[in-house]
Design brief:
This protein is α+β, with helices and mostly antiparallel strands. 54% of the residues lie in helices and 9% in strands. It has a five-stranded mixed beta barrel. Helix 10 packs across helix 12.
């Protein structure tokens, strides 16, 4: 549909993938080297700047491969949730996916046969084929990075700096995928479309006592009860630091936008003072 095409072009413009004439910018040309959604490509390129490429490639592979969490047979849902919680990361689902992938890699290295590998996956209610696919995708992304001579930073998963860097990289590509819990009970209003969504049951925040107010999500699904899938907590300060001003000014009016504007106003005097001292 023409509206979808216009939206796609607008999104590419926000991602700095187009020049003033509407052609691919130099940045857009590099993004197009990756067989991924533009937001994901942008996050990978941002991870070169924030030095968390190793982790971002794992996230990109895991969200591109099929869902690794198996549909638990009736009566085993609680067991499956307990198994998955072993991989949960407090920073959010993107980080949980890194834990799952790394655990699978370790189990593969330690197992003498493919059967042991599949048993490990079954025991944790994980899809062996999805995780293998993620491994293949990740290897392809590494090859692309090498071919276009982009730096691949050393793994540093777990450090505070690394977690912040991953969030910055994700926000660089997914600033259009932000939602806020408007009533403290998990009703997330998306900034861009002003639609209300709930957390997908596979989220590590689902049925959790503490659900974050502001989140970045990978995708929104109308077919799955208006749910947001692969969700990680972000802070308003980090969002306003990385969001393009042009995009922010075009957001529809909302209480969430007003809150973010207050954060910008609060941070502005600091920025102004820094400029004056230079």
């Amino acid at each position: 549909a023409p509206e979808s095409l216009m939206q796609a072009l607008e999104d590419l413009d926000y991602l700095a993938a187009l020049d003033n004439d509407g052609n691919l910018s130099e940045f857009g040309i590099i993004m197009s080297e990756f067989p991924l959604d533009p937001q994901l490509s942008k996050s990978i390129l941002a991870s070169c700047e924030f030095e968390c490429v190793d982790e971002m490639l794992t996230i990109a592979a895991m969200v591109t491969a099929p869902n690794c969490f198996l549909h638990a047979p009736p009566g085993t849902e609680e067991i499956a949730l307990t198994c998955w919680r072993k991989f949960s990361h407090p920073a959010g689902d993107h980080f949980t996916l890194i834990n799952v992938f790394n655990a699978f890699k370790e189990a593969s290295a330690n197992s003498a046969s493919q059967c042991n590998n599949e048993k490990w996956c079954r025991d944790y209610f994980l899809s062996c084929s999805a995780l293998r696919m993620a491994g293949i995708i990740r290897a392809e992304l590494v090859e692309i990075m090498k071919r276009i001579e982009l730096p691949i930073s050393e793994p540093d998963f777990g450090s505070k700096e690394n977690i912040l860097s991953i969030k910055k990289s994700l926000l660089s590509g997914y600033f259009m995928h932000i939602a806020r819990d408007v009533d403290g009970s998990g009703n997330y209003l998306m900034l861009t479309h002003r639609q209300v969504a709930q957390l997908h049951p596979s989220s590590s925040y689902y049925n959790n006592r503490r659900i974050p107010e502001w989140v970045l999500f990978h995708e929104f699904s109308i077919s799955e009860d208006n749910s947001i899938r692969v969700v990680s907590e972000i802070s308003p300060d980090l969002f306003v630091e990385l969001v393009p001003q042009y995009y922010f000014s075009n957001l529809p009016p909302s209480e969430s936008k007003d809150i973010l504007q207050e954060v910008i106003n609060h941070l502005s005097p600091v920025s102004t003072m820094k400029e004056e001292h230079k």
